[in-house]
Amino acid sequence: MSAAALVTPADLSAATQGKVSAADPRVQPLLDGVTAAVRRFCGWHIAPSYTETLVLDGPGGRILTLPTLHLTELTSVTEDGVALTLYDPATGLGDFEWSELGNVNRVCGYWAARHYWTERYRGLSVAITHGYDDAPDVAQIIIQVCANALASPMGATREQAIGFAASWSSTAPGVSGGMSLLERDLAVLATYRLRGA
């Protein structure tokens, strides 16, 4: 199962005031491609909120960094086949604590038997809910890129005939249309990008 779409064909049609039909067979593949490019650049799904179980390599240190910037729930952690428990500062019992930014600290409490995460590949299984409820700025980027690509699917910058001329917005010098993330888009997406992505 994968995260839900950030933008639907109906959203794109509404944003273009019906100039792009939601039924156009080019729309869904283009939305899927642009969304995948945005999520790949950022290193995670961003929105909407989504529940999944991740199987991860053990980092070996005290901090496990999950692929998210908005963690809302950490349901379970299993390390090398052993279920761990959330740390309770009142009792000093438990194995881990977590932050909204996706960092999971291996607790060094009084009763903790281990102080570091495993180093085993695929040694951790983590069930989480993460992602923003919505990300309108990211959705707008996807809409703009798709609208530009559909406006000039062959990449033409200008068309002219007797008594008629049309120019399309450029996504790069001499290039119109296509699936291109512009510098302005990347600047917005950088705020959602994982460290090291």
As a percent range, the share of helical residues equals 10-25%
Give the low-confidence spans.
none
Number of strands: 11
Give a short account of the largest sheet: 4 strands, antiparallel
Order of SSEs: HHEEEEEEEHEEEEH
Strand content: 15-25%
Overall, the morphology is elongated
Tally of structural domains: 2
Counting H and I runs of at least 4 residues, what is the number of helices?
Answer: 4
Please compute the radius of gyration using only Cα atoms: 22 Å
Structure classification: alpha+beta
pLDDT averaged residue by residue: 87
Query: How far from one another are the termini?
Result: 22 Å
- Oligomeric grouping of the chains: single chain
User: In order across it, which strands form the biggest sheet?
Assistant: 1-7-3-4
TL;DR?
This protein has 197 residues and is α+β, with helices and mostly antiparallel strands. Helices cover 23% and strands 24% of the residues.
